Amino acid sequence: MSMIRDLRAVVRPSRVSLRKEGGTYDATRSPAAASAVVDCAVYRDGRRIETGTALTPHEAVRLVRRDGGFVWIGLHEPTEAEFSGIAGEFGLHPLAVEDAVQAHQRPKLERYDDSLFTVFKTIHYVEHDQLDANSEVVESGEVMCFTGRDFFITVRHGGQGSLRALRHRLQDDPELLAKGPSAVLHAIADHVVDGYIAVADAVQDDIDEVETEVFSPGRKGSPRGSDAGRIYQLKREVLEFKRAVSPLLRPMQLLSERPMRLIDPDIQKYFRDVADHLARVQEQVLGFDELLNSILQANLAQASVAQNEDMRKITSWAAIIAVPTMVCGVYGMNFDHMPELHWRYGYPVILGFTVVVCLGIHRTLKRNGWL
Q1: Distance, CA of 216 to CA of 205 (rounded, Å)
Q2: DSSP code, position 321
Q3: C-alpha span between 36 and 144 (Å, rounded)
């Protein structure tokens, strides 16, 4: 147990806010690169074997089978042709290989004869100056892991989620890497879930901002309906976040609770910590969805109230204008025998009567809250 006492310190560096640091993900390989292999290394007794030149997957496999250890191969968006040779070298199941090449998979854990196939969805927070109805809040990618007795293969899809920094941190702790591929699998799972926690904190700030603006009294200058568009956009982004978090909880529970021959017993108990953090994030995401529903309903209710107030004002002024309209309509008729037509004070009396009635109606409507 003392060999992995500092496990959390190695695979879980201090968290920083994505808003302040602009994210924790490295850039991917250059699109002009000739190969999908980002890195290929052999580890023996927890240390990387330096050969002086870059190893090919075939050379790494020969070293492992000859001298022991395990090989860690990292790939980024390989084609079927690029991955078929590696898959054949390690005897990967065709269904898992197909999923790894095509991507767009649901987070899951699948067990085959001599390997585990794990799919993680990485989530990256997209910085924005101001949240609007078209803002992209989260961006997703995928990390697929093949874990075997003497190999670990990662296949990444998407522009985010580089594992280079994680590989370097693991290489700085030979005692941890000596536990084999299962230690790498735990480190990646912990790294992905830590990313979820940071993104959840950033999304919480966006939701708090929208909530404050929706319920701010006397807010002016915002077009009616703009808040509903922003809330709906946030709901869509939270839904994408939810699709990454919720399906992963069961695989993490299996890795932490069910004995597996490919997972070191000393490493397995640390998957329970990852599952606990993932459960907390899931609760946050579910809370985000419910809170956004409430904010959206409140916003729609506010819009409905505002429309009712507008209609009451329009109706009130129509009632006031109806009085002079009626009087003018009556005295605009061309009858010879109409009263007060030839009276000297008829015009000012009728005009004063109209004004008094209009003011009385205005006062009554204002007292009742219609104006």
Answers
A1: 16
A2: H
A3: 14
